[in-house]
Amino acid sequence: MATSRVPEEPHHEMSEAELWGSGERPVVPLVHLAYDAIFTFVPPARINYWAGGAERLYGWSAPEALGKDVDKMLNSTFDRPRAQVIDEVIRQGQWAGRILRRRKDGTRVVIDARCVLLRDTDGKPSAIAEVNRDITAEHDALEREAAKTTLLELATEAIFTFSLPESTITYWNGGAARMYGWSSEEALGRQPHSLLKTEHDRPRLQIMEELLQFGQWAGTIVQTRRDGTKLVVDGRWSLRLDESGRPASVLEVNRDMTNEHAAEVAKSNFLNLVGHQLRTPLAVIKGYFSLIANGTYGNLPASFNQPVKVVTDQLRELEHLIESVLVISRLGQQDFAELQRIDLGSEVEAAIQRARARSGTMPAIEFNDPCDAVVGDGDSRLIGQIMDELIDNALGHSTSRDPVVIWLTGSPNPSVYVRDQGVGIAVESHPYLFERFGRRNLPQFSTRPGLGLGLYLCKRLALAMGGDVTLETSSPGAGSTFRFSLRASFPQAAETSSH
Amino acid sequence: MLVVDDEAIVAEMYRLALERAGYRALIALDGETALETITAARPDFIFLDVRMPKMSGVDVLTRLVSDPMTRNIPVVMLSNYDDPTIVRQSLSLGAKEYLVKAGMMPAALPTVVAHWLTPPASDELLTRIKRRTTHPAS
Question: Which chain A residues are within 8 Å of B98, Cβ to Cβ?
Answer without folding.
Answer: none
